[in-house]
Amino acid sequence: MAQLRSSATISVVLWYGLLILVTVVMHLTRETQQSQAHVVLIYLLVVLGGSLSGGRPLGFTLAAAATILISYYFQPPFDSFSLTKPIDAVVLSAFFATAGTTTYLLVRAQEEAAQARAHAEEVERLSNEASHAEALRETARFKDVLLASVSHDLRTPLTSIKALAQDAADSGDPNAVIIVAQTERLSKMVAHLLDMSRLNAGEFPVSIELNTAEDLVGAAVLEMTGSNGADRIRVEIDYAAPVLIGMFDFVESLRVLVNLLDNALVYSPPTSPVILSATRVGDWLQLSVSDRGPGVPRTDAERIFEPFYRHASTANAVHGTGLGLAISKSLAEAQGGQLIYSERSGGGSVFTLRLRAVGATDPAELPVEQ
Amino acid sequence: MVMHPTRTDATVLVIDDEPEIRHVVHSALRSTVARVLDAADGRSALATVKAQTPDLIVLDLGLPDQSGLDLCRAIRAHSLAPIVVLTARHIESDKVALLNAGADDYVTKPFSTSEFAARVAAQIRRARTARPGTSGAVEADGMSVNFTSRHAHRDGKPVRLTPIEWAILRALTADPGRVYTHQQLFDAVWAREFGDARQYLRVHITNLRRKVERDPTHPRVIITEPGVGYRFGTPLVQESA
Questions:
Q1: Alpha-carbon gap, residue B158 to B135, rounded angstroms
Q2: How far is residue A190's CA from residue B208's CA, in Å, rounded to a whole number?
Q3: Which of A152, A234, B37, B194 could form a disulfide with B88 if both were Cys (CB 3.0 to 4.6 A apart)?
Q4: Of B27, B165, B203, B204, which to mutate for an interface test with A (greatest number of A Cβ within 10 Å)?
């Protein structure tokens, strides 16, 4: 700011100095060959120069000063403000008008040039940003390739280990049974870590489509088939009621349900049933997994969705990655849904996946032809 | 349910650059197929497909010299043998692209060898049966459908189906056991329609299941392939170890 002011002062001094100088020079020669036109043109140049470097204020004050100087020194009678010929008044006002107008136009042109420069800079900045975004996309692509190769590199050896151990287990080696189980645990961890890094990468693509809760529940039950205790899963759906329709990502919702069922089977007594139910509540499709496990202490109800949360009493007893619930919550939220925990009356936990419901529950409004 | 595939005289080609995985595939198929051939890259795989005409091809997607998708198409240009893909990725769009490129089934690593063997056996059986749909009737898990007389029965009791449900069943049973992508089903059922009707495919499937399945959430007639599509037939899942 201080620098700006001093450069403005310099240009005021400079251009008033020049104004005085040309006045003195022209005054010295005014008796000889000079016409009023020369004087006016020279003053005009000074005014334009001043407005170029000092803007409108300097331009207009120089124009006014020059008008006074012309009138006083260079219009007969010299050294007086009185005008003898009417044409002199015309010259004087024409000068003032010209000087004022050109000052105005010149400054405006300057301002427009400055705007154009700023605009060009903005364009350049935006194009820099665009290439930054391109770089980000490139990074995302790179991450994707990296994840693909990591999952390939990890899963290929796991495949051989699991298959060979399975062979040995089939021929009666009890150690091999443990290797198979541990390999399965390891592959689940790999899958969870890959999910976590995909979710953390920010761009998590979901494909939200019209789906039914029943199809989802059926796929979850099928996926659980074969895992330990899967026969304890009881499905509660009202088949007499209209089909429950929602807008959600089938694959990601399926993974949430499978995670919840996995947890419920692991944490609950081996004889108790695990209930998987689908209902509609307001604008939500609610898919609930209820167990008779130990539940979650009230103080931990918020923390169970944090990565690596483990309740102290189960930390040693239960194997897992500690990522399942955190991933499930993120997967639910990525598609506009929710994952909530509530206490089950009579003991145990209820985890509810809420997804966006679609359409009316009135069968007449369903798009099914009869 | 454990699938115990019976031994066939089939020849299977395994395309995989990892010797360990080839070993696993060999040992998984030892008791079910007659001969297992190896190829470690796309070029030799194509040569073997042309020279030995295998009955089924197991293709690993992580080949060094060629994209799995391209190889899948190249094999399809020379052979009608079923292609079972081994993939390390849980990306459904990849699976859809593979099925559209001519693959018949896929198994995600790390897979269970018994499930893998069951899928291979099912594909060989499927390829050897005369193209169904021509017979006009199919059966699965107590459900029988006759397209000529347009009668459907669940455990002997007649079941009433809507025209769209008939069309969906017709499309799925053209090749029982084959996975049809959502797009393929849209095209088969709503060939000349565009827009809103198509998005209700999954609603129609759910309604259809309530009629044809004993238990709609334990489907055994119309199987969901998550993110990919649907398949007609019993689920190929192994029971717990």
A1: 20
A2: 37
A3: A152
A4: B203
Confidence of residue B183 (pLDDT cuts 50, 70, 90): confident
Residue B148 CA: distances (Å) to CA of A58, B135, B139, B151, B164: 99, 9, 14, 8, 16
What pLDDT, in 10s, does the model give residues B116-143? 998 899 888 888 875 554 567 888 888 8
Q: A212 CB near a chain B CB, below 8 Å?
A: yes
Superfamily of domain B11-128: Response regulator (3.40.50.2300)
Using the predicted structure, report yes or no on whether residue B235 has a pLDDT greater than 70: no
User: Min CA distance, A273 vs chain B (Å)?
Assistant: 17
Task: Please provide the distance, in angstroms rounded to a whole number, between the alpha carbons at the two ends of chain A.
Answer: 80
So where are chain B's domains?
11-128, 137-232
Name the residue ranges covered by the structural domains of chain A: 2-125, 209-363
Q: What pLDDT is attached to residue B192?
A: 67
Helix (H) or strand (E) holding A274: strand A274-281
- Tell me whether B134 touches chain A (CB under 8 Å): no
Q: ipTM strictly over 0.85? A: no
Residue range A209-363, CATH number = 3.30.565.10
CATH of B137-232, one of 1.10.10.10, 2.30.30.140, 1.10.3980.10, 1.20.1110.10: 1.10.10.10
Amino acid identity of residue A207, one-letter, is S
- Note the pTM of the prediction, 2 decimals: 0.69
Indicate if the pLDDT at residue B2 is higher than 80: no
